[in-house]
């Protein structure tokens, strides 16, 4: 296996040159500077590449095992997780009040990328714990916070999110899990949950389940869902784990990828009922979930970047070493990176990864701003909410193409499991499904993020992008010319698509949603091009190889990705109706 | 698991309405008519869906096993293969002289699609045998034909193709396997071959290896490679298998997919040397391989169609049955096929599959014509040679997208192996790699198929497509208008790309090859649209639901696939250089 190289240089470029993190921090009132972020990232990079990454292939071959309700994680996971918590990585972004380090979103993004790159499977455990912490911070009462937060922030206990049931997947309105209020104010929870990531494992002494369920008199649909804390072990008055709660893991799934991450079927209340504690108020569970969802979806988008970069690095290492054939126009046999198509695949990966990483950092800056007292926080919140489905959808869909190409670079060896490229390809496949499929993201982008404000946030962003087009167009560098031309036409295409989606809201709602996924791809394509514009502007202040690398990557993105924007807009506007009107009797012919 | 439905209705439409098979047969002097082809296809469909398809999932979980040089195939494979041979399916296309049925390429295409759809893994065994038969028919002397052909045609013995070595993958010039001529005219073969499909198994009493190797005085490179027959068991004078030859299977690979197909490492001549017999003349091995290669590449292209259709049918069955959520614009909760994005994915699969199948039938007609005494055989041969890399490359690349979407339709269940969708996705992954990667196909398309004749075959085909654009444009049906407009602009884009590729041959050879894969995609996109034009012309002579289904599928293809042609042409022309000029020092940053 190749070695994982944390993207420290690109991070320094993004924070120092492209986005001016120091100014951002000042603006948000964050007590942190670029040097500090990079120093933290360097340490995280070491832990990721030296401790986590070496476990990843083994956890694929020797995944989590279930026996008699007990789950044993892959060899090395327990030690690595203990080290992870000991070094304080788990609590990086959480309030110091609960033992965290109170660092901002940009820092969290920088280090989270590395955990996921080193191992999607391993990093899912802290990622789900983060979700549980966010839920309690958002809506938990003081008693819940007091009992659970410090342990979750330190990582001594881990958290899970229990949403899905066999008949309630994308449609949470169908949740059937029951919650009965007891005299002491607690609830008895009964029901089955499926697809519960790290629902059971041996990494921590307690597992805190966040569970969606209905009280008996709750309204039907999404307005009757409440959120509960259900610990695996009840918590003693002194804060230590006590007796076992009535919840157990019935089995774990046999999956295409992320074998190191146990995906559990959870049974709540096979006996008298699992004891649960209401988070916030009854019937507001979905609302709390939505608050956390931005965070969770952002994290999954980041996983798309991470697995893409890891797969790219793996393929690149092979391309630099494997000798095969004489490339066209060259005199001698060389390494395969000399072949034009191998270079096309590699720069295709690299240029998309650079756009993805820049977008992740940009959105995390909007998160920081939105949570700050800065004047621009309202605008930043709207922009973050617009871009989260784009980041989740586009980064994870891109990850499919990139991990595919990474296999392709290996030729026949790519199909052999021992090579390792296939694992990234298989692992990545979950990313467009969980935390809301791409269609769910796309529908959110159409309905809540475009139509609801009549395109206000969308047009504001397009305006900002066009301003950068103008600046770039005034620069004589060939890459600046190429990119600004393509980005201008892409912005036009996007604007026309936004207009059409708003105009057709009433007249052709189903056709609009028939184009929602292409609409998401169009957004990703355009903001990806914009990120290259920002990168190129920063690089134009440099010269030599540094400028050349950024300029070629930007030119590549313009000619291979941005170029597709007008066709995507046409597909959105013309493509929705044929599938909708296709005769139902004619599918299987 | 869903049931496999052979595409009999679409086949009847293609042969009866779109392509007029009866006239084609008459033209080629083939003694066969549409009714006969459909009757054969119906029988093949039964065998595929009732005997082979039910073994496919089991052979994934319980793949071929190696122990001490012996390979045991998956449960049920032996019986199914025996039935396959007994029913005469193995020899369908081969001369009656050797016990075959002498049927034409169109028939072979129709039934081969079904074998591959039922199980890529199972069908690889007869597919490789076909390759060995073609090699012997092409270049074998009478003695070789006499000894081997009847047994291979019946399927009692199977064949393999031994090309790849650890240092000779895409680059066969690097083949190192040795062949020493003996006094009796036979050769002693020494060397290692890898990635040998069905190199060892228990389905047949003998395995006939076709092996590329070099004689001691052979020229370097591809002009010094010879082709040998190396039987697993020597053949007695009475034609029965005799003593064991010096060849054995050292191991089989642990692969991402097609677990039912053993992929062998073969050792030739660990002792005194494996006995081999020269096929044709020394040093002409690669030439013979190239003759067969059209056949083999066509077959792999067909596998792309097959696995796509099987995955589509599997997803469709789920979409028609799974209830989840209320679709936008609808009053009640329904099956997920009511959701606009699910319909988009399903019609996206269906419309591409229809284009792929039509193209496979069209190219097989060109093969029939090329092998006939018809006046148009020269033109047909050129067209077939132009289209084979397109068929191999575009159908197999499309299969990646389609099997991906088929997983997506299942949502979370798609990631669970028991669902079965993931197997198609994993199995399909080999198709863009073996028998020449997509880049190898694309380079062939650029060099041998476009530049060598200065675009003659390409422009002739574009001319034919434009003639259909004209006919379609004269029809007032909205789908005819939409499709003819998009196809006209796609043909323009393709023509401009062909021109650029010819013009830039000398001035920018590396940039041309940097765009070779997009060039292949452009060809697939345009000929796929052309196939829809042919289908739509035929359907316009019908009415009601039959026309509606074809028209909506064509409209979908126009708005979602053909629409991308102009951008692909731009990528080809502008996109090659950035990857080539990217500074080599800057990859890992």
Automatic annotation (TrEMBL), chains A, B:
UniProt keyword list: FAD, Flavoprotein, Oxidoreductase
Matches recorded under InterPro entries: Acyl-CoA_dh-like_C_dom, Acyl-CoA_Oxase/DH_mid-dom, Acyl-CoA_Oxase/DH_mid-dom_sf, AcylCo_DH-like_C, AcylCo_DH/oxidase_C, AcylCoA_DH/ox_N, AcylCoA_DH/ox_N_sf, AcylCoA_DH/oxidase_NM_dom_sf
Residue ranges of every copy of the Acyl-CoA dehydrogenase/oxidase C-terminal domain listed in the record: 283-445
Top-level EC class as recorded in UniProt: oxidoreductase
Cofactor: FAD
Cited function: Involved in the assimilation of dimethylsulphoniopropionate (DMSP), an important compound in the fixation of carbon in marine phytoplankton, by mediating the conversion of 3-(methylthio)propanoyl-CoA (MMPA-CoA) to 3-(methylthio)acryloyl-CoA (MTA-CoA).
Annotated protein name in UniProt: 3-methylmercaptopropionyl-CoA dehydrogenase
